[in-house]
């Protein structure tokens, strides 16, 4: 890439290369631990030779590493280092674990804390229900889609208008309308309930710091007869937990910035 010291501007090709690196890295996730150059090419619409050259360059930079299978690539040590550093800067991940444990024990459900990633919520912490043999859970690192209650809570409070567009790429007009209605309801009520496949439901609420929404906390359950009204034990414990975390983070209950109350 071109040297930008001394006031030199980056070229269009430099910017395109950076964007491509981001696209390649975003292909990896909890269910995609390794990829071949051919798979990268197919998913991003690239020439195979071009995809391989990108992957090889990322290996040289420490962003990727050679995978266990011949011709594959995995996320490298630099990504691990940066990921740990990024999480360590999110104070909510340091103070949330005991709150999640208490919440999970109180309602006998799996409690989950998610952060907003590059283009959507990512599960950061998971506290499984320890009172049951079989539990509904999710992996840390999972990217949540537009149907998740935590996603809808984020969309209700993020100030970046692009977030909604990212979460509705490829969606039908009916799906967009349904999501808009769910986000509106979540913003007014302060929490969100969403049904998932297999009879699973999720309930979520926001955690705020002094700058706005910092995280979301969700509960995973599978009881079709669960009481999910605002006065129910499940929702009451959820809202009490998010309020406690918000207070520790010096946030305001409505998510408004203390420095800029009109935001």
Automatic annotation (TrEMBL):
Organism field: Herbiconiux oxytropis
Domain (IclR-ED) ranges: 78-251
PANTHER family registered for this protein in UniProt: HELIX-TURN-HELIX TRANSCRIPTIONAL REGULATOR, ICLR FAMILY, TRANSCRIPTIONAL REGULATORY PROTEIN
One Pfam family here: HTH_IclR
GO-annotated biological processes: negative regulation of DNA-templated transcription
Protein known as: Helix-turn-helix domain-containing protein
Domain of life: Bacteria
Gene Ontology MF: a single term: DNA binding
PROSITE patterns hit by this protein: HTH_ICLR (PS51077), ICLR_ED (PS51078)
Keywords: DNA-binding, Transcription, Transcription regulation
Residues of the HTH iclR-type domain: 15-77
UniProt key word Transcription: yes
